[in-house]
Structure formats: structure tokens, C-alpha cells
Amino acid sequence: MHPVPLDEASYFGRDEIIVSKTDKQGCIVYANDVFCRMAELSTGETIGEAHNLIRHPDMPRVIFKLLWDTISAGDEIFAYIKNIAKSGKYYWVFAHVTPSFDAAGNIIGYHSNRRSPNPQALASIAGLYKKLLGEEKAHTSPKQGLEASAKMLMEMLEAKNISYSEFVWGLENGDV
Predict the structure, then answer these.
(1) Contact partners, residue 155, CB within 8 Å, separation at least 6
(2) What share of the chain is helix, strand, coil (3-state, %, to 5)?
(3) Which of 15, 34, 85, 140 is deepest in the core (most CB within 10 A)?
(4) Which of 82, 113, 83 is nearest to 100 (CA)?
(5) Residue 9 has what DSSP assignment?
């Protein structure tokens, strides 16, 4: 699925939670009804597919690198994510992604709960993501673009003297 992005937003309720689970490679093994409704996909169209089937092209790769580096290390992460539905509409989420462990403590997959984000935070995060994506596209090599985008993100966080987690929680709570 590579829908053409539309400049039309979809929303889900503040009391709803989008839930999905993946295997270690990021293939969906579970998606709840809110996930399917927002993505405009049936359960059959989601199970077994790579989770990035809902990745919006406005998302900078550096955010997903940060996410994967964090959860692969066994830690949780919170992040703002812009997703794309089958129709091309977009929807923002405030994601909480955690690794899932077996009884021996080995990572066996990942679990993500997504809530409706603070609307006031989206202008700030969309502006930052546009800058990061622009930096990624300004380089001829995808690797150089990703490195430059990561440097830009880390410099912004260092200037604020906060971690990425503190930054996104500050946005969510209206503190940053």
C-alpha cells in the first residue's frame, strides 16, 4: 500500500486507543478495531504486513531510527507519529511503543498503544519533522541524510537540555 497523501486529516476519540503488536521484524501480528478503522484496512489486510504500511511520507526516518534503536535495546519510547490511511488521509498519534519479552527476558516482539495527541503539540512537532525531513532530503546519500537529521535533532534537544522523551512529554503536556 502506497496511497497518494491527501491534505485531509482523520481523527479518533480521546477515549480510544489504537493497539498493534508486531514480531521482532516489525510485521503486524495483532491490530485492534481502532487501528483498522483509522488505517482503513481490514484485519486481513494488516496481519502479516510490515507495520510501515501506514508510514506517512512526511515522517522523517530519524524518528523511526530512534524508535527502533530504543525498543531494540529493551526500552520504551513515546513519539508523535503521522500515519497514512488507505485513502491517503493522514492521522496523528501519540505512540507508546514497548518491547514484549518471553519468560527468559528475550525480546519477542513489540507492542504499541496510540492515543489521540494534544492538538496544540502538533504544530510544533509538524514543524520539527518538516525540518528533519528537509535535512534528510538535502543529502545525496540516504545514510548521510539520516546522520544529518539525527545531528539536527540531537542539537535541538541539547539546546533545550532535555531528552527526546522529555521533549515529547513536554509537548503533550503543553510545557515545551
Answers:
(1) none
(2) 45, 25, 35
(3) 85
(4) 113
(5) B
Q: Are strands 107-115 and 77-84 parallel, antiparallel or unpaired?
A: unpaired
Q: What is the pLDDT of residues 97-107, one digit of tens each?
A: 999 999 999 99
Q: Tally Cβ neighbours within 10 Å of residue 150.
A: 20
Cβ atoms 3, 86 nearer than 8 A? yes
Distance between CA atoms of residues 102 and 109, nearest Å? 9
Q: Which three cell numbers stand for residue 116?
A: 489521540
Enumerate the H helices of 17-60 as residue ranges: 33-39, 43-46
Find, among 86, 88, 81, 85, the residue nearest to 116 by Cα.
81
Place of cell 506517512: 56
CB 77 within 8 A of CB 97: yes
Q: Are 56 and 39 in contact (CB under 8 A)?
A: no
Cell of 175: 510545557
